[in-house]
Amino acid sequence: MWKGHHGVMRLMKCMMETSETQLGDSRLSPKLGYLIVNHLCPSLFSLIGDGLKPFQKDVIIGQRRLSPWNLVEASAKSGPESFHILFYNVSRFQQLRDPQRRFNAFIFGLLNTKQLDLWISHLLQIYGTFQG
């Protein structure tokens, strides 16, 4: 079975037990915030990263290593404006240099704007060009 399965199941149970007004605020529902950061985000990062081509051809530098963050960037450029704005806002934070942290922040932004499902649908449409 998929290694993040148990964490995601705990996340779903916690979400069902938390009122909708508290879902977007990790101060009001710290258990949910913990589950998102420690289970949902890493699981999505691994799931999206699995099967990526190791490199993508780049006009300027020849080849660049692909990561899930590169897929976020591609989806933001080709998707709705809300994805682009969220990507831009996450990218400009100097504290978020690590691609995993940027990815986590992007996922939190999608959750806060109730667009995670829309982003995953869009990602499925463009994912073929990045698959190895």
What does this structure look like?
One of its GO terms (cellular component) is cytoplasmic vesicle. Residues 31-132 form the RUN domain. The protein is mainly alpha-helical and 132 residues long. The protein folds into 2 domains: 1-50, no CATH class; 66-132, no CATH class. It has helices at 5-17, 30-49, 68-78, 81-91, 99-112, 116-126; strands spanning 55-58, 62-65. The chain has a two-stranded antiparallel ribbon with strand order 1-2. Strand 1 (55-58) and strand 2 form a beta hairpin. Helix 2 (30-49) crosses helix 5, helix 3 crosses helix 6 (116-126) and helix 4 packs across helix 5. The protein is globular and about 40 Å long. The two termini are 23 Å apart. 20% of the residues are buried.
What are its keywords?
132 residues; mainly alpha; 2 domains; two-stranded antiparallel ribbon; 6 helices; 2 strands; 61% helix; 6% strand; RUSC1_2; Run_dom_sf; RUN domain-containing protein; Run_dom
